[in-house]
Amino acid sequence: MINITEHLPVLIIVISLMSAAIIPIAGRFNRHYSWYITVAVTFVSFLISISLLNRVLNTGKISYWLGGWQPPWGIEYVLDYLNIFILLIVSFIAFIVSLYARHSIEKEIAEHKISTFYSVYMLFIAGLMGMTLTGDLFNLYVFIEISSLAAYTLIAVGRKRNALMASYNYLILGTIAATFILLGIGYLYMVTGTLNMADLRELLPPLYESKVVLTAFAFFTVGLSLKLALFPLHIWLPNAYTHAPSVVSAIMAATSTKVGAYVLLRIMFTVFKVEFDLEVVPVTKILLVLSSVAIIAGSVLAIAQTNIKRMLAYSSVGQIGYIVLGAALINQTAMTGSLIHILNHAIMKGTLFLVIGAVVYKTGIEDISGLRGMGKKMPYSMAAFTIAALSMIGIPLTVGFVSKWYIAMGALNAGMWYFVPIILLSSLLTAVYFWRIIESIYFEDANTEPQNAEYSQIRNPDDAPLGMLIPTLILAGLCLFFGVAAFLPVSIAEKAASMLLGGM
Amino acid sequence: MKEHIIVRVIASILIPFIQLYALYVIAHGEIGPGGGFQGGVIFSASIILYVLAFGMEEARSRISQKMSDLLSSTGALIFAIIGLLCILAGGSYLEYDQLPLGTPKLASHLGIYGIEIGIGITVAAVLITIFFEMAGRKDD
C-alpha cells in the first residue's frame, strides 16, 4: 500500500519534532515518560538513518520532495554520501547521549524543568538533522535557527548562574552568525532567483565574478565559521561548554559544531564549485591559515586551563581546526581525513564529556584536581577517559590516529609539507594536557588532597551508575573499534570526498 | 486596575471582536494576507488586553498554565499529523491534494486550513505563556 521507506527522509525529522511537542504533555502525567520517549525516538531515528545509509549505498542519491512540489520550486531533502554520514553521527550520538542523560540530568537540572529539557533536546536534534538533510538554502536557515535557539536554551537550563551569561553571549554571537547566513542566502536569491542548492550550483558559475555573489560567499563563510567556532570566532564556545549541564556539553561538542562544519562544506563545494574556492576567491588559503592557528592556539589555550570542561572546550577549538584544515587542502586524501575527523572527534569528545559528566555526578568537582586518584574509584569511567584521551593525542590503533594520518598525508600530497609539523606539534601539545590528567588519575593518591576529603573516604571502587557507564563505554569502545576497523567510515568518507571535489 | 470601570467595560466589549477578527485572519490566511501566525498573535493580544483590564489572577483562572502548555503542543501536533495523514493518503509529506476530501483542490484548501488552525493555536498559546511568564515575574 504505502511504501513507508520512501518517506523516511522526512519522517526522521517529523518524529523528532513531534516528540518535542509530545514530551511536555507526557511529562505532566509522569516525569519519567519524557526520558523514555526521548530514548525511544532517538533510537528510532538512529535505525532510520541506518536504513537510509543502506539505501544510499545501494541506489545512490535520494531526493524527497516535500508536499510533492518539484524542485527547484519546492523544498527538497537530499541524501548523498556526505550527509548520510553526518546524519548517522548525529542520530547515533543523540541516542547515546539521551541514554546517558537520565541520572545526570536529574542531578544537574531542577526537577520541574526536566521534561522541558528533553523537549528542547529533541528540538535541537531535529534542527541538526534538518540542517543535514535539506537541499534548500532557506530551509537550511530555518533549521539553523531551530537548533541554535534550542542550544541557547539547553545551555541556560542548568543550575549555574554563569550559564545564563554564557548562553546570552552565544545568543548574541549566534544571532549575528544567523543574520550573516540569511544575508548570504538573500544575496544569492537576489541574483539567481532560486534557493535550491543543486539549482544554484548550475546557475551560479556565470555569476562568479559578480560582487553580489562574492559578498554572499563572504557572509556565508564568516557566519558559518562563527557557528562552527573556527579560531578567532570561537569565543562563545569555551564559556558555553563550561557552564552548560554535562549532557549538553557532550551533545553540543559532539554534534553541533560538526553539523556547522558540514554546512560550510556544503556551501563551499556543493552550492559553489571547487573552482570558485580555488580560482575566484582565495578562501582556501585564508582557511588554511586560520585553521593552522586554531590547531595550535586551541591546544596551547587548553594547556592553560584548570577547569576540565573548559580544557576540553579549547581542545575542541583545536580539533575543529583539523576538520577545516583537511577540507581547505582540497584533495581527496585530506578531505577524507577531514570527514572522518568529524566522526572521530564526535566519538572522542563525546566520551570525554560523558566521563566528566559522570565525575561531576559523583563528586560535583569540575576542576582537574578533582580527578586525582580517580583511577581506583571509578576504574571503568577512567579507562574510557584514557582511551579517548589517547585517541585525541593520536596514538595508533585509535580513531584520532586515522584522521590525523589522512590529513597529514593529504598535506604531503598537496605539496604543503609545512602543515605536517603543525599537526605533530599539536599532537605533542595535546599529549601535554592530557598526560597531566592521566598521570593524576592513576599515579596520584586522592587522600593527599584535602579539598575533596569527603569523597576520598570511599576507598572501594564507586563508579557511575550503569545507565551512565554503558553509553560511555560504548563510545570509548568505538574509539578503538574505528581505530582498528577504520575502513568502515573511510569507505563512505572517500565516496563523499570525491563527490565534494569532483562534482555531484 | 479594579476601579477603572471604563477600561473594563471597553475591554469586555472589544475582546470578542478582537478574537473574531483573529479567527477571520486565520481562516482567510490561505487565500489572502494573514494566516495562522498573524491570527494567533491577534488572539493572544486579546488575552493580554484582558489581563491589563482584569488582572493576572482573573486571567489565569480562565486560561490556566496547564491549558496553555497543552494548547501549544496541540497546535504543533495538528500540523505534524496533517502532514502524516497526507503520507497515509498516498502522497508525500504535506501533499494536501492527496487527502481524500472531495476534489484535490478542495482537499488542499482544507489541508491548509487545518495547518493554519494548528499554527494559530500554537502561536496564541506560546505568546500567552511568554506574556504570563514575563508579567508574573517577581524581582528576586
> Which runs of chain A of at least 5 residues are low in confidence (pLDDT < 50)?
none
| First-to-last CA distance of chain A | 33 Å
Query: Using only CA atoms, what is the Rg of chain B?
Result: 18 Å
- Provide the residue-averaged pLDDT of chain B: 87
Oligomer: heterodimer
What is the domain total for the residues of chain B?
Answer: 1
Number of strands of chain B: 0
Number of E strands of chain A: 2
User: Cα-atom Rg of chain A, whole angstroms?
Assistant: 22 Å
Helix proportion of residues of chain A, in percent? Answer: over 70%
| Number of alpha- plus pi-helical segments of chain A | 21
Amount of beta strand of chain A: under 5%
Write the H/E string of chain B, N to C.
HHHHH
Largest sheet of chain B: none
Structural class of chain A: mainly alpha
Q: How would the global form of chain B be characterised?
A: elongated
Class by alpha and beta content of chain B: mainly alpha
Give the N-to-C terminal Cα separation of chain B: 24 Å
Strand line-up across the major sheet of chain A: 1-2
- What is the count of DSSP helices of chain B, taking H or I runs of 4+ residues? 5
List unreliable stretches of 5+ residues of chain B. none
